[in-house]
Fold this sequence. Notes:
The chain is mainly alpha-helical.
Amino acid sequence: MDIYSGRQILVRRSLHLPEIEVALAVRSVDRIAGLLGSGTLRPFRFGAAGAITFPVQLGTLFLFKEAQLGSLMAYALSLFVAVQFNFVISQAFVWGDRPLESMFGRELVDRWLTFHGCIALSLAINFAGFAVAQVFMPDLPAALIGIGSSTLIKFFSLDRLAFRQTLG
């Protein structure tokens, strides 16, 4: 009996145990892949994308500093690279169930521009949250307030605007 659906599983007598194990393993992988790609786990994929983007930004910052760029220029360029990387990983991994009809043309440009608008909005909220909170508390908790508030805004704005079901 299938524990997920409650249906009886008919097994041909000619199947050997290894074949059954492979079939069950494939079915389990399909279920896990379906769950990982579901909207339910999108916030976790969003967090994972951010966690993956962070070392990309730090790594490129290090590379730009090694190339003798000044700190501000190196940081600006590493932020630019990280945001572009985050767009790609968001398109493929976080919102991969909402593909574009074509990866070329107006639809991609619209999504890319909307993505950057959402990122700019979240950065402004992050800064404002920090600015207000640091009046009442030390910098570290104030930074966490800014990051937390902007992360929520960023997720929902990306979900509803940049990666909405249908662009048009």
